[in-house]
Design a protein that fits this description.
This protein is of the alpha+beta class. About 30% of the residues lie in helices and about 30% in strands. It has two domains: about 5-185, no CATH class; about 195-250, no CATH class. Strands 1, 2, 3, 4, 5, 6, 9 and 10 form an eight-stranded mixed beta sheet that branches.
């Protein structure tokens, strides 16, 4: 990953002196997301937003070993990314906290840099504290003994998991062998994505188009039903649904005005006016 001038300026906030770009190594990673993890927990979207602030400047170590000798890198940029084409297990739009980290190119770090580039050192895990762990079934704090539901079990069709909310502090992030969050780790590059506003605007455009086409093709189905179907679809599938309906509508309902003119030279027989 090439180091830009913008990267240098952000990294300078954490260094005591200016460091040339050729002496800096940077890499992107996913810190955490709103998917249900191996521990039966997930971060709320609001929690991810707060963690984006808390993880700025936090150090990277190994296996959560709180020792300064294991410090390897530092985060200098974070961003919340929403992927409208994908849904988390509970139906929410998949959202993750991405970050950029930097380290020095040195003899000490050469082996680690090679392992990161080779995809060997890849998986990561975060260490932080949260104010509450809400039950997805009853909404009570699972740590206060107010909830009797068990993570992983299903109650009246609703799966139980803990929702990590109200982050209080972020301590560090670590290279680990098996992270609790399956998607956490170093990535090749930041994936192209749309902003939340762009995604919402597109969704509304596709939704209105689907409702309009469905009213012409299947008038017996209420628009409220079509709207609910649209709301349940990921953006990518909603777009495909819209395109299919538009194609069907153009084939089965070609709209032409009654007084459309004939092509030049075509004989006028006025059949359209005969009863």
């Amino acid at each position: 990953m090439s180091v830009t001038q913008q990267d240098i300026e952000k990294i300078r906030e954490y260094t005591r002196k200016d460091i040339p770009a050729e002496e800096i190594y940077t890499f992107p990673l996913i810190l955490c997301d709103n998917e249900i993890d191996r521990d039966g927990e997930k971060f709320s979207s609001d929690a991810l937003g707060r963690l984006a602030e808390l993880f700025l400047g936090k150090t990277g170590i190994f296996d959560h070993n709180m020792s300064s000798k294991d410090q390897t890198a530092r985060i200098y940029e974070t961003e919340i990314v929403r992927d409208p084409s994908r849904r988390a297990a509970d139906g929410e739009i998949y959202t993750y906290l991405s970050a950029k980290a930097y380290m020095l190119r040195s003899e000490k770090n050469k082996e680690l840099i090679d392992e990161i580039d080779a995809g060997i050192k890849k998986e990561t895990s975060v260490s932080c504290s949260v104010g509450s762990v809400r039950c997805s079934v009853c909404g009570k704090d699972m740590r206060k003994g107010e909830c009797s539901h068990i993570r992983g079990r299903t109650y009246a069709g609703k799966k139980c998991f803990g929702v990590l909310s109200d982050p209080l502090d972020a301590y560090e992030w670590s290279f680990v062998a098996v992270p609790a969050q399956r998607n956490a780790g170093v990535v090749k590059s930041f994936r192209p994505h749309e902003t939340a506003a762009d995604a919402d605007e597109l969704r509304e455009e596709y939704r209105e188009s689907v409702i309009s086409c469905a009213a012409r093709l299947i008038p017996s189905v209420k628009s409220e039903v079509i709207a609910q179907i649209c709301d349940s679809l990921p953006l990518k599938l909603l777009k495909e649904f819209r395109n299919s309906l538009k194609a069907d509508a153009s084939r089965s309902l070609p709209l032409a005005p009654q007084l459309a003119g004939k092509a030049q030279g075509e004989k006028q027989n006025f059949n359209e006016y005969r009863i």
